[in-house]
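ENCODED BACKBONE
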Amino acid sequence: MIKQSRIKVGCPFCYEWLPDPELRFDVYSGEGARGGRCECGAFFVVDETGKAGGQALMDVRVLAAGGDLEKAMQLDSEKDFELKTKVIKPSSRRYADRIPGHAYMQPKVWAIRLKNREG
């Protein structure tokens, strides 16, 4: 059994602490991704390497679409959702070996908040 690490990072939308990510299979990646949902309604996934942003973006879109890839691909970034990322600070031992100052190589949280659709 893989030990799940805990993260302590605020939601990029509401700034409340995100719940511990769980291994999810209702995402784009076949092997699953670690993520969840904030109390504010935002969906998130964790890119532990800081190098898999495209995959994390697809994972969080599919997660927000309830696991439906076709629906996720129809979401319009201008009308249907807001996307934000947040670097996980290296205060956690798990992420302490990352290179300071290189945000593109540090673990990140990718979060999507769906916009309310009118009509």
The longest helix spans residues 53-64. The mean pLDDT is 85. DSSP finds two helices and five strands in the chain. Residues 22-114 form one domain.
